[in-house]
Design brief:
With 98 residues, this protein is mostly helical. The chain is built from three helices and no strands. The longest helix is centred in the last third of the chain and has 40 residues. 12% of the residues are buried.
Amino acid sequence: MRGLICGPKLSACGLVLSLWGVIMLSMLGIFFITHSAVLIEDVPFEEADIHQDSPQKIYELYDKVGYNCIIAAAIYVFFGAFSFCQMKLNKRKDYLVH
């Protein structure tokens, strides 16, 4: 069948992992954009950034990491759509008579 790349098990696994990736990365992106203090260990700042009077530099780094998480979640959406299409093609293949 034309366009069939993945089998039924691989496409189902890809769909489940994509859904989990979208949920997890979207929530991480939201928490980074709201500057959650719990995630400070994951922000790539330097020692000089901590000792500044204004925390603006660290807030910019929080936003940068948050936007990266949102972009990664969008990529997972595309892979989930691909896996869903593969599942549909596998279902259609099962109904064809050879």
